[in-house]
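The pair is quoted verbatim below.
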Amino acid sequence: MNVMKTMLIMGAVLLWNQAALAVRPCAVISDAQQQRLLVLAEEPAGILAVNLINRQVQPWLKLKHPPTGAVQSSDGKTLFVTCAAPESEVCVVDVARARITAKLPAGHTAMAPVLAPDGKTLFVCNRFNNDVSVLDLPTQKELKRIPVLREPVAATITADGKYLLVANHLPTGRADAERVGAIISVVDVAQGKVVKDLLLPDGSGSLHDLRISPDGKYAVVTHLLARFRLPTTQLERGWMHTNAGTIIALDRMEVLNTVLLDTVDRGAANPWGAAWSADGKTLVVAHAGTHEVSLIDFPALLAKLTKPATPQSRGNRSYAATNSADDLSLLGDARKRQSLPEGDLGPRAVVVVGHVAYTANYFSDTLTAINFDGVHSKTETIALGPKPKMTTEQQGELYFNDARICFQGWQSCASCHPGGARVDALNWDLLNDGMGNPKNTKSMLLAFRTPPAMSTGVRENAAVAVRAGIRYILFTVQPPEVATALDAYLKSLQPVPSPYLVKGKLSAAARRGEELFHNSATSCARCHTGPLFTNLKSYDVGTRNRFDKPTDLFDTPTLVELWRTAPYLHDGSAATLRDVLTSANKQDLHGRTSLLTEDQINDLIEYLLSL
């Protein structure tokens, strides 16, 4: 019987590794009771178990949909795993038997499960529904959905269970507003609604992780801090992007400060996962773009942030609460930057067990163990399977997220195009069409099929734009194969089904909107034609602003995935599609919509958001 069991396990490992070119570890949690890590893998969808004593890796559980997050019950007996799909599910897993005992329905691309302290309620972020499911575990019913702002991707709950903090991945509203930045939504659990918005600094976006300190006093969220109001003339000293963590004081539920994770001459691109040591003394942040971690002495950092600044104390690096978001030297000796071993690439998740931090490395199918108990931290690579043989598309995805091909590691392509080469909701003053005329970031989806590139069509096609981006945005010169791989990755992108679809089909309102869209009276389909919803031509659609040239014409964009690319128009001046069809279309130059009724406008919007 034992021989048969061993043969079955060996066969499972072989089949697992043959089933895909990569494991793609995206999250990791500690199963302390069994002295192992559970690693969530995207390809094929499942969970691996890593023994912390002998480092053996075994398949533990196969899943129908890619897992995005997991949380374990306080007694260690039950695991709750979010599995992403347009209609996601939360798998309830009996840990002892490694068996799914129930599946709870959730929204579009469920992730970041959070268990209430009493163990009776599970909160799940539905990324593309822009809301949070409240699941009652005794009855296995969804009690309600709590609307938040935009793409909730991380969440955590206070120790007393009163407040749920939710990290919205991207900013909302107009891109030409006085303040443009992502927000933390604070949910009063008893009331079941958002009671406060915590505003991150202007330019904040690409939020990834949100964690509360062991003493329950602070929370930290990882994010980018874009300097998008400056022309993109250089990268030195974080001119375009800095990489940050914002600390929230939970006693008064306010932002305490934002701390830059870069140094003066070296960026720390794309901060992703975060974790605390059990004693709260060390905060670990994974930098997915530069393949390293920051080991932060949190009490030392806190002392700098909370001590009042005086002319005398500034020499000792003490700061008032408003100064650190622009200071590249603040962390100083309170942080150690630890590079991962050569070949460990894309650390996106991190967990701390004792004095060892473990990162899940998305592009190399490895874990890195970093022992920080002492002056010199030690690193070890744990392979989750055979070394992956990357396709050209996968190599391009790595380059797209890799700050090593950027001057001083300040940013990657994904810094402006997060979420799988989509949008950051910001306006950037790129130099390709002059200076002083910022344009909204466009999604790279279908870029190779919808030339020209850029809002004003200044790049002949996406291939030209890719090569110009390496030279003029990343400020480096790369071998030709880098651009070729980037091309392949961008060509491989596929649309995500809209959250406005009902079981994959248009709603009744959207079907009415479809008729309006194709009606000659509205003339929408004259320019937005065919399966890509564009005729590839440029027009004067009456949306020029004071920064544009009188002769500027604007490329007709594809409408595919329009639901996730707000704000709209070349300058991001339309926060919603309603704005596009009404206040920004008074001359009926992009669709004749002025004579439509309110109900017809609503139907047309429903259709457009379903594409």
